[in-house]
Structures are given as C-alpha cells and as structure tokens.
C-alpha cells in the first residue's frame, strides 16, 4: 500500500480501518493510564467502560466478512513490547479483587470454572492489539485488520469478554449493595491464614475505591 493511499485512509474518519484503529489505540492508551494508579478510586468503573467500548470494535470485526491480508505471510514486526510492567501495575491496583472465576467455553458441557485474573486478561488483550497496531502504523492496513479480526475470534475477544463480566460484576455488587461471597481459595497464590478473609478485603476495597466514584455513599 502506498503512502498516499494510507494517508487517504487515515484522513477519512468514516473508514472502517480508521474507526477500528482509533478504538484500539484508545483502549491501549487508557489502560496504560489506569495502570499508573493516579486515580485508583475510579479504576474499576473506568476499565469497565474501556473494555465495553473495545468489545464494540470487536463485535464489528466479528460481524465483518473475512478479512484477507495483502501478503500471504505475515511480515515481521520485530520484538513485541513487554507488558509485564503493565500486568504487575494492574494486579497491584486491583488487588484483592483481581482474581475471579470463569468458564472458558460456555458451549462445552460441564466445563469446570477456572481462576483468572483481570490484570492478566487486560495485559493479554493489549499484547494482541499492539501487534495489529504495529502493522497498521507501518501501512499494512489489511494485515492489521486481519490480525485484529483473527485474534478477536481466537483470543482477545473471549479474554476481554471474561474481564468485562468480572468488572461488571464488581460494579453490580456495589450498586446493588451485595457483598462478595467467600472465594474459597480461588486464588492459589493467596495466603489463607491472613487475619482478614479475602471476602472482607474485597468488600473493603469495593466500598472504599469503587462506591464513591459510582455515587454511592457509605452508610
């Protein structure tokens, strides 16, 4: 694709590729900003909003006809950016409500729930999105769209959807004033001998860090 063609695409706000890339970039930037921890009180509601908006882009990609890249083999984009720092910052920010229970595939009978982490999910989604963004910024628009569509169906779509359910559940527990149930050792790394249970800690975090931004005053 020539530079002139790419510039034409990037200058058209109604172009499908531009709209998807804008939503992808907005998510990457927003999650990185949340992970800095400058406004921990609003972290969960803000992440809920960002993941919801990203999944709108994912839905458009999923509903779109199969995107075929211009080249048969994926060009090398170089070393992938490290997301370990982002993952660790999010884990610290969301502790102790980072761990949640998820069923991997709702269409597999009798699937046992597994323990997941919101921080892992968001870091993995960012990794997939950055990969496609590298192609987009290099002018390989069809390659970027193909990657975002493929990885939405195979990885970041299910991952973001699971994280969305967890974040929505946290907000719902606060808005409906329903305490979290005991997680019964769901986090295998947690220390079960601590004086306060994980349930108590999670409830305290939600009350102190989530309720106020949502306009709920403590009684």
UniProtKB/TrEMBL annotation:
Pfam families: DUF5063 (PF16702). InterPro entries: DUF5063 (IPR032025), DUF5063_sf (IPR038312). It comes from the Bacteria. This is DUF5063 domain-containing protein. It comes from Streptomyces iconiensis.
């Amino acid at each position: 694709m020539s530079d002139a063609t790419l510039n034409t695409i990037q200058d058209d706000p109604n172009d499908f590729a531009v709209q998807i890339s804008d939503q992808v970039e907005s998510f990457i930037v927003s999650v990185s900003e949340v992970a800095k921890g400058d406004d921990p009180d609003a972290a969960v509601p803000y992440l809920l909003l960002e993941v919801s908006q990203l999944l709108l882009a994912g839905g458009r990609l999923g509903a779109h006809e199969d995107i075929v890249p211009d080249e048969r083999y994926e060009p090398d984009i170089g070393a992938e950016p490290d997301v370990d720092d982002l993952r660790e910052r999010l884990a610290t920010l969301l502790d102790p409500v980072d761990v949640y229970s998820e069923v991997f595939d709702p269409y597999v009978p009798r699937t046992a729930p597994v323990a997941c982490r919101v921080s892992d999910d968001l870091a993995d989604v960012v990794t997939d999105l950055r990969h496609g963004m590298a192609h987009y910024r290099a002018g390989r628009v069809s390659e970027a769209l193909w990657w975002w569509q493929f990885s939405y169906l195979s990885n970041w779509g299910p991952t973001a959807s699971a994280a969305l359910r967890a974040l929505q559940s946290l907000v719902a527990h606060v808005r409906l004033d329903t305490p979290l149930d005991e997680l019964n050792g769901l986090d295998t790394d947690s220390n079960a001998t601590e004086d306060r249970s994980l349930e108590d800690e999670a409830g305290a975090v939600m009350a102190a860090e989530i309720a106020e931004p949502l306009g709920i005053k403590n009684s």
